[in-house]
Write a structure and sequence with these properties.
320 residues; Rossmann fold; six-stranded parallel β-sheet; 8 strands
Length: 320
């Protein structure tokens, strides 16, 4: 086996492990959720994992990620602590936000996960501010800022794009376009489907991918990150993708009247978890699957054993 073949095999195994880890974590969350042990709403990214995985695979440990309220995938793809994430969902004091934030407010600054926010689009100006600090400190770091197509309608996003372009900040903006803002399709919100063109008007290198193929996402992200490190200014990627579960909650919603299972079928047929897993030798895939299941079981046990926050926590980490 030559060096390139080895590198390709290592990449496939690494990507599969990340994809599988996110998928199985969220499937277990969906199974546990009806028991009421999870104390916050959950926005699952089942079906969308390849966007975060492809982007985060090209980032270094010192690079920063800002996620959305559908942030499990970005948090885990960047190496976020699964035990701390699960404890946070359970509202326990060992959670990444000490049990106060829940699913929509994941943070792990040890892994440079800047944090997620329940307020649509609000993570983008924070990410840009962090990128400004990086630039002023002359650090060789970049920020990957994720947002959905719904957030593309928030004014702060456009203000942030303009500011980042004006100051040539090292931000990779990633629009996870799953076609819906909650239940409203993009076709009923925009007269023209030109999200990438709108961003390009700020003088930002902007590209729309054809699909959420994890290898294509990774290649585009690698090109973008290289440009950021060279000082070229911000880069934008629009990645079409699709969430398989309901907007918020553990279930499916194809009978809710706003989309059909037929619409989802092509995305499910091109499931990136299965596609990448099929590239691996069966024994290698089985070993990854077993390790992922063991890690998730450990995280759930950790969350169950962790105590709830003391009442005094109400007065800690607050502005006033």
């Amino acid at each position: 086996m030559d060096d390139r073949t080895t590198r390709d095999a290592d990449m496939a195994a690494r990507l599969y492990r990340s994809l599988r880890r996110i998928r199985r974590t969220e499937e277990r969350i969906a199974e546990v959720y009806p028991s009421d042990r999870i104390k916050s709403p959950v926005h699952l990214s089942i079906g969308q994992e390849s966007v975060a995985v492809g982007v985060c695979d090209v980032l270094g440990p010192d690079d920063v990620v800002a996620g959305t309220y559908r942030g499990h995938a970005a948090y885990l793809a960047k190496g976020g602590d699964l035990r701390a994430m699960m404890a946070e969902l359970f509202g326990k004091v060992d959670g990444c936000a000490r049990g106060k934030g829940g699913s929509m407010h994941l943070v792990d600054m040890d892994r440079n996960v800047l944090g997620c926010s329940a307020v649509v689009g609000s993570g983008i100006p924070v990410a840009v501010g962090y990128a400004l600090a990086i630039r002023r400190r002359r650090q060789d770091r970049v920020v990957a800022a994720f947002y959905g197509d719904g957030a593309s309608e928030e004014g702060c996003v456009y203000e942030s794009l303009n500011f980042a372009a004006l100051h040539k900040l090292p931000v990779l903006f990633v629009c996870e376009n799953n076609g819906y803002a909650i239940h409203e399709p993009l076709s009923r919100r925009w007269a023209a489907d030109r999200l990438t063109e709108r961003v390009a008007t700020f003088g930002i290198a902007a590209r729309r991918l054809e699909s959420d193929d994890v290898f294509a996402v990774r290649a585009a992200a690698a090109q973008g990150v290289a440009a950021l490190r060279a000082g070229a200014g911000p880069v934008f990627l629009e990645v079409p993708t699709y969430r398989w579960r309901e907007h918020v909650g553990p279930s499916e919603d194809y009978d809710a009247g706003y989309r059909s299972r037929d619409e989802a079928a092509p995305w499910m047929a091109n499931d990136q978890v299965e596609r990448v897993g099929a590239l691996l030798p069966p024994e290698a895939r089985a070993a990854i699957d077993a390790a992922v299941e063991a890690e998730i079981a450990d995280a759930l046990a950790f969350a169950e054993a962790s105590p709830f926050p003391d009442a005094r926590e109400l007065h800690a980490h607050v502005y006033a």
